[in-house]
Amino acid sequence: MRSQNFLSNKPLLYLVATPIGNLQDLSPRAKEIIEQADLIACEDTRVSGLLISNLGFKKPLISLREHNEVSEANYVVEQILSGKKVVYMSDAGYPAISDPGSKLVQIALEHCINVSVIPGPNAGLSALVASGLNTDHFYFHGFLSPKESQRNEELRKLATREETLIFYEAPHRIMKTLESLYEILGNRRACIARELTKKHEEYIRMNLEEMIALDPESLKGEMVIVVEGCLKEVSDSIDDKEIINLVNNFESMGISTKDAIKKVSELTKVSKNYIYKIYHN
Ligand code: SAM
Description:
- This protein is an alpha/beta fold and 281 residues long.
- It folds into three domains: 12-121, Cobalt-precorrin-4 Transmethylase, domain 1; 124-230, Methyltransferase, Cobalt-precorrin-4 Transmethylase, Domain 2 (2-Layer Sandwich); 234-279.
- The protein has helices at residues 28-36, 45-54, 69-81, 102-110, 123-131, 148-158, 174-185, 208-212, 232-236, 240-252, 257-268, 272-279; strands at residues 12-16, 39-42, 61-63, 86-89, 114-118, 138-143, 164-169, 189-194, 202-207, 223-227.
- The protein has a five-stranded parallel sheet, sandwiched between helices. Strands 6-7-10-8-9 form a five-stranded mixed sheet.
- The mean pLDDT is 94.
- Bound molecules: S-adenosylmethionine (SAM).
- Residues 20-21, 90, 92-94, 97-99, 122-124, 168-170, 193-198, 222-224 line the site of S-adenosylmethionine.
């Protein structure tokens, strides 16, 4: 279905990207749309209320977050269909990127409401572009699981990807995550982008082995971890033991040996026959 946002009279939901630290990063267009809005739906009314009052506006706010996203999305839809101009924003950066918002978009589209984005800051892309790592192709993972076994499982699936990898992390989990990254992906080049756009903004460019030796006290605040992808030579010469481990991992997830071999073959580009042979040896 094709539908123009600004040249039709169709109802429209505005997704507004908000600052990730520095309030000056809110775009003039975002400010204008907020000023015109009849209702601001947001992740946290305290956080967005502060941003809006700093702009000098007073607006009705409702909270739409993970636990009530569907019910509140239906309310937002009603409001838009009754002719109100509604903005959705999360606490920081883009809505729907490791933040609520994607269900709201789906529900709005199901009700034939158009969706428009007012672009702005995003922590992952900001970290990537200044990391010094390859930006041609990248994979955004967001948060890894806080549970070690699950986190390692997620990382094993990424181990042979050649794209630069982007992770979000909370300061109290950073060391454990760095240890998992080093253990599963090996000693790769990486970059921690810390406190972006704020006074203490810092880029820590070193390899993962050096990172796990850092003083945890020096890793405070908000952080993105950007990790070099699997080098082509490595992904090309992935060894038999690693291949067998990958098959075992898929099997432990309840996948049959046949399907596990098929998946590992797709992942590693090693032939199914060869995997079958080494696996049954
Ligand atoms: N929606 C946001 C976006 O578009 O980037 C991401 C929100 S997510 C809940 C929060 C995570 O983003 C943090 O744990 C951190 O990994 C990253 N982050 C947010 N602000 C940051 C900043 N100023 N500097 C570095 N990382 C940041």
